[in-house]
Structure formats: C-alpha cells, structure tokens
Design brief:
single chain, alpha/beta, Rossmann fold, GMP Synthetase, Chain A, domain 3, five-stranded parallel β-sheet, 26% strand
C-alpha cells in the first residue's frame, strides 16, 4: 500500500476523477518520522532523491540514507543548541543538503524558514529580525555568507551558522560535522498543529508577510502531487524551483514522497531548456512541473522528444494558449494548470490531463470548499467575476491553509474576514465548472515565476532624490509573463530623459534581488488616484499599454 493511503480517504468517479478527499492523522503527526522514517524502515533501498549538477556530479539517495543523514543533522543542530520551536533559515538553492536539513529540523520540532540566495542584505535584515532566527544554513555561492554576516553585524545579532561543501570563515562546515555525528536519534514529540515552516511572501502595501504552516501541511500536498502533478509510485518527479520558494514544498518533497515518487533535482544557476530536457531524458523523469516561463522557452527553442515523460503541469502565472497548444502538439501531453498560494496548498487545477482546458485554472480541489464571492460576501453566478474564497470545514481547522502571519494578527484577521479566507484573486466560472483567472485584487506582480510586491521596489525607488512619487506595476511580457515597470513623478528640479530612466533603473536594480529588477520607467506629470488618495495601478497599466503615460 502506498504510504499516502495511511493518511487519507479518497473517492474517485467512473472516469477516475477525484470527487472526495479527507485526511486522517495522529495528533503527533510529523512528516520526517511518520513518512520518511517509516518508508526507510519498510523499503530502505527505495529511491528518494536523484541529484545532479551542471559539473557532471550525481548523487542518488535512498530513503534509508535520508533517514540516517537527517538523524545526523538533527544531532548536529541539537548539540549547537537548536531545539523545538527555534527558527532556522535555510538558504541552500538546489543543493541536496536542503532535504537533509529540512527533515532534521522537522525532527527537532524546529521551524524551517526557506529563503532564496537572491536576498539582499536589507532583505536578510528584515527576515532575521522579524523571525528572530536562531540558526542559518547557507550556500557558499553568490556571496551569501558575506551578506549573512553583514546583516547579522547590522543587527548585532548572534546565530548558529553553517555552510555546506566548502569551509567559510565565520561558519561551521555542515558536511564535516555530519561525518562525525551520531545516526541515533530519539523521537522528539511534536503536535500536528505545531508550526513547521515559515515562508515570507510578498505584499503590495508593506513588507513581506511571514506565512506559518503547521505539521499537517505536507499531508495536504497529497492532492498536489498525486492528482495534479500525477507523480506516481516508483516514478521520478521533476519540479523546476529553487528551495527558497514555496513551490519547492509543492513539488520537491512532501507530496511526492507521500505517493512514493522519487524527486529529481538539477542544481543549476542559469536556465537552459536544452539542459532540462537532457536531465528529463537521462534520468527517465515521468512527471514534470515548471512555471509558464520555462514552457515558453521550451516552445521558443523547440521541444525535443521526451519519451519517459507522462505528465506535465504548470502554475505561478498565466499560460499563453499558444504555448499550451504547441507543447501539446509536440509531446502529446496537455499542460495541466494549477492554482494556489504560499498561504495554501493546491486550491484548484486541471486534475486529469485529458480534461485540461487551455488557459483555465481548472476546477476546485475536493479537499477545499471554494466559492467566488462579491464584496458583500455573496456567491456570484457563473460568468460573473468574484473573489476566490475558501470556506472553512464544518468541523475543526483546514489542513493546508496557513495558521497565521507571524506577529501580524491584524492581517491574518483581515484575510479571514467574514469567516472565509480571501485569496485576493479575481476569477469567473464557466457553465462547465472551470475557473478562469481575471486578475489580482492586490496587484502582486508575477514575473518569471516569482511573486513581487510593488512595495518592495517602490520603497527602493523612492530613495532616489529625483523621485517625488512612484508606483510599480506589472505589464505583459512574452518571456517573463509580466515585467516590472514604474510610473515616476519626478521632483521639480529633475527632467525626464533616457539618461534619467537609465539612472533610476541602475539605482534601483543595484539594490534589489535580480528577480525584482525594474525593467522600464514611465515618466508621468501626475498620478491617477482614488478619492482617498490611493494610486490607481490599473489606470497606470492601461496608460502604459496605450503608450500615453510618458511626458
């Protein structure tokens, strides 16, 4: 019996579509013990992780090796003083040590905080201070250790520090510590509703929010892996995502191992569609998931034969119908789009490949009660636009929905107003029950698979003396989905020019992580505002599209 069946009840219709899904789990459920260690005991040689990098290195880990090495890492962290409830930031890109560390922290009952290597010193300062981080495990690449040390110095803060693979001044070498650590580990009791992971997610009107998920979160990803990504027992699933983003939890760890699939990881820095296809064919990947940006590049460069591939899925931004059609024509595999948020697991998707409707968000997961509501909280009929909202279950709490924003009860209460979770996304439903994305109520920009809050760029841009007012928004881009653009009202002593545009872009981009880079500037004589003084980003987007916003 597949491991996931121990934790759920599922019912399918005559066509094999999931029509009912519920979870069952012990009060002390912990993924590392109850899934990984359990598989290791029952099938020690079963393949868990297949890892390769662009230098030709390769490592294949069994579940027994994952269980043992995570025990060793738990001992390393425990001896350094990290325990239950402590928060540990992990910045490990696509290094295989991420999986060992994540499991070890789960076993300790510590709270995992995945983070991207692209964070600037200012980004790190905000996150370290907000979460009161006790430990950091990071890559030696991309000057990450140097930025970490600089951030800690600015905060006069002490943390337990490790890097991987190479020695770095000021850090312990985790790989070396693992060599001498005991593989014996006694279970630390945790509760299913204890905090397990924190993800920082972008917002439009303030700093990134710290999203808290509990130990039930991995179980909610059974639907993600089995019924959307179609990961299969003894198969090999490949999701293109860096471990600093929630997409890694969706496609590189929890649901896949629960359904018995190994996880494929390619440790690369620069995206190369030919390289990804080589990995798929070399290792026999059976299911693949990537943001639309990846599929756009594949279609543009030419999709090669991939005989082992059975299923392909995508999420993160809108997918052009042309890309859907060309990929399916070449491979015979329809692209199954899915939808969810950092605050949730999969909310809706094209669950069966043969039922995939190009451009649609799909249909709601049977695990959630999803409705489209108007501003008064009333359900809208098919064809009308409403906000995607999640109703709570009749009893208890809903696994897979975040349990809070760290130290921000006000924001948590706001998104749960009226007794339902408000996603902030607008959509409409057709007569066949498929949902169609209309836009974001909160104007978050989705660029190249990343989520960027306008505020994150605006507060940097406003530091330039020439900028009196600015508003950042996304505009359609054929490769990125959206490109980041700013409307700028200059201070009286400055004039709009090509040189000024370049100066502002250079100023801004030198202070931002690359995925947040400003791609264009529109100089305006005034900002369109609401009666309450809020800038109307929708109007700015329209002006930019029509070419009417420049002086």
């Amino acid at each position: 019996m597949s491991m996931y069946k121990k934790f759920c009840t599922e019912q399918l219709d005559e066509q094999g579509r999931l029509k009912y899904f519920s979870l069952r789990y012990p009060e002390n459920f912990n993924f590392a013990y109850d899934v990984v260690d359990a598989i290791a005991e029952a099938e020690p040689e079963k393949r868990a992780l297949v890892w390769c990098n662009t230098e030709g290195q390769e490592k294949i880990f069994s579940f027994e090796e994952m269980a043992r090495q995570s025990n060793q890492a738990a001992n390393v962290f425990h001896h350094a003083g990290i325990g239950k409830g402590d928060r540990v930031m992990v910045i490990l890109k696509r290094h295989y040590e991420y999986w060992i560390c994540a499991l070890a922290l789960h076993k300790l009952g510590a709270v995992l905080i995945p983070a991207t290597h692209m964070l600037t010193e200012a980004d790190l300062i905000y996150r370290l201070q907000t979460a009161q981080v006790k430990g950091i495990i990071c890559t030696t690449q991309d000057q990450v250790p140097q930025r970490v040390l600089a951030a800690l110095e600015q905060l006069s803060m002490h943390c337990c520090l490790w890097t991987v693979q190479q020695d770095t001044e000021g850090f312990r070498n985790l790989n070396r510590d693992l060599e001498t650590a005991s593989a014996e580990w006694e279970r630390v009791e945790t509760k299913a509703d204890d905090p397990m992971v924190i993800y920082f997610t972008s917002g439009t009107t303030g700093n990134p929010k710290a999203v808290i998920h509990d130990h039930r979160y991995p179980l909610a990803h059974i639907v993600t892996a089995k019924y959307w990504q179609q990961a299969e027992d003894q198969g090999l699933h490949f999701t293109v995502a860096e471990t600093g983003w929630a997409k890694a939890s969706w496609g590189k760890l929890y649901g896949q191992w629960l359904v018995g699939s190994a996880v494929m990881v390619c440790d690369f820095d620069n995206f190369d569609p030919k390289q990804l296809c080589t990995v798929i064919n070399t290792y026999g990947v059976t299911s693949f998931c990537a943001p639309p940006t990846v599929y756009r590049y594949l279609v543009r460069k030419g999709v090669p034969e991939m005989p082992s591939l059975k299923h392909a899925s995508t999420a993160g931004e809108m997918l052009a119908k042309e890309v859907f059609r060309k990929f399916t024509e070449k491979t015979g595999i329809p692209l199954a789009e899915g939808y969810g948020q950092t605050e949730t697991t999969l909310l809706m998707a094209n669950f069966c490949g043969w039922d995939a409707v190009e451009g649609s968000m799909g249909t709601p997961s049977p695990f959630y009660q999803i409705r489209l509501l108007d501003r008064d909280g009333k359900e809208v009929p098919p064809g009308e636009i409403g906000e995607v909202c999640v109703l709570p279950p009749e009893e208890g709490t809903q696994a897979g929905i975040f349990v809070g924003y760290l130290d921000n009860e006000g924001q948590y209460s706001y998104v749960w107003r009226g007794g339902v979770y408000h996603t902030g996304d607008a959509a409409w439903q057709d007569e066949d029950g498929h949902f169609w994305f209309h836009g974001r109520f909160d104007d978050i920009i989705k660029t190249g698979g990343f989520r960027v809050g306008p505020y994150e760029v605006e507060h940097v841009l406003l530091e330039h003396p020439a900028v009196q007012e600015c508003s950042v928004f996304g505009v359609p881009d054929p490769l990125r989905g959206q490109a980041i653009r700013a409307a700028v009202l200059l201070s009286p002593d400055f004039e709009a020019s090509t040189a000024m545009e370049k100066e502002l872009k250079d100023f801004c981009n030198s202070r931002l992580a690359e995925y947040k880079w400003l791609r264009g500037v529109e100089f305006v004589s005034s900002m369109p505002k609401t009666i309450s003084g809020k800038i109307r980003k929708g109007e700015l987007r329209k002006q930019a599209a029509n070419g009417t916003s420049s002086l």
